[in-house]
Structures are given as C-alpha cells and as structure tokens.
C-alpha cells in the first residue's frame, strides 16, 4: 500500500464521486461523509438565509470552499458573500471572497463544527463563522481570525441563546433566532 500525503488526498478528492444523498468534505486531508441533514437543521438554514438581504448578499448553500495552504475543502451549510464578487462558475469558492460561513450543528458534527472547522475557517481568514447549535439552543459567532494552519483561531466569540437577537455586524443585520428549532432527545455537549 502506498502512503498518500495531503496533496495526493486533495487530488483524489477532486475525482471522488460520493453516493447520492451524501455530503462529502475534505478536512485537513481527511474525507468526511455525512448523511442528509435533519429537518430542524434545514429549517434553521432556511430561516437564516431568509433574514440576509438578497440585494446585497449572495447566500449560497452546499458550496465548496477553497482554503489557501490547506488540504481542506469544507462545505458550510451557508456561505455569505457580497453580491457581485464571486466567479461566474466553478466548484470552489475562494475563502478570501467570503464574508461569513454558517454551520448548523448536527448530532454527529459537534466536534468538527466547534473544532477543526473553526481552525480551518480561521486559517482561511473568513471574517465571521457562525455556529448554530440546536443541541444546546445557542449560537456562537466567531470573528477576528488569526494564525495559520492548525494554530489558526478566532479572537472574538459571542454566545447568544435561541430566542434573543444576534447582531451580525459584518452583514449589517440583527439575526432573529426565535424560530430556530432544537433536536429532541440528544445528549448535550460541553462546547460553549
């Protein structure tokens, strides 16, 4: 068996055809496959998308993000970019064009959303990363990315419970979280 480095895994990932209905991401050289999301998850994404003004922002779902100097191609639940800055076509959206990414935590994505993706998005210098967590009914807004690679992180963190409004300064809006649903019967975790 031949060892494959991260660059080789990136090339393999470009040609990989996942089974229908499966979401696939490349996170620091590791291919991660997930089943289709829960209705609670999908409704939260729709609710967020509906609150972001379409005239100024493109709100893109299931878009692969290209992170410079990373063997990563995450697929956030929602990508927000200023209207008119994205290329006309292509599979990968350069991270430097992105204003905000949104991940809605699923029952199996807790560690990825709060851990490796936090570091990957910070390494990509994405100004705002919003984690919406229907397990513990709160949002975590991360801003001010700093650092490179595995050491990258966000300096600022704001936690908002579901039901309160969350200022998204980078978008110039207040996000209403009152309609966000929660998962039933899922054990809480210890992330913020």
TrEMBL record:
Q: Does the keyword Manganese apply?
A: no
- Molecular functions per Gene Ontology: endonuclease activity
Highest taxon, organism lineage: Bacteria
Alphabetic keyword roster: Endonuclease, Hydrolase, Nuclease
Q: Which residues form a coiled coil?
A: none
* InterPro entries per record: Nuclease_put_TT1808 (IPR012296), Restrct_endonuc-II-like (IPR011335), Uma2 (IPR008538)
Putative restriction endonuclease domain residues are: 13-176
The cross-references to Pfam families, in alphabetical order and at most eight, read: Uma2
- Specify the protein name: Uma2 family endonuclease
């Amino acid at each position: 068996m031949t060892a494959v480095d991260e660059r080789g895994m990136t090339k393999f990932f470009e040609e990989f055809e996942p089974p229908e209905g499966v979401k696939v991401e490349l996170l620091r050289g590791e291919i991660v496959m997930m089943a289709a999301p829960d209705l609670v998850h999908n409704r939260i994404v729709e609710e967020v998308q509906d609150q972001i003004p379409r005239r100024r922002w493109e709100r893109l779902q299931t878009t692969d993000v290209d992170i410079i100097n990373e063997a990563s191609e995450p697929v956030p639940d929602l990508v927000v970019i200023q209207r008119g800055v994205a290329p006309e076509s292509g599979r990968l959206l350069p991270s430097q064009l992105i204003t905000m990414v949104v991940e809605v935590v699923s029952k199996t994505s807790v560690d990825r959303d709060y851990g490796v993706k936090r570091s990957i998005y910070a390494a990509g210098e994405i100004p705002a990363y919003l984690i919406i967590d229907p397990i513990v009914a709160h949002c975590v807004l991360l801003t001010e990315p700093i650092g490179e690679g595995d050491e990258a992180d966000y300096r600022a963190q704001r936690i908002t419970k579901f039901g309160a409004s969350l200022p998204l300064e980078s978008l110039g809006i207040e996000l209403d979280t009152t309609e966000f649903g929660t998962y039933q019967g899922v054990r809480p975790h210890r992330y913020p």
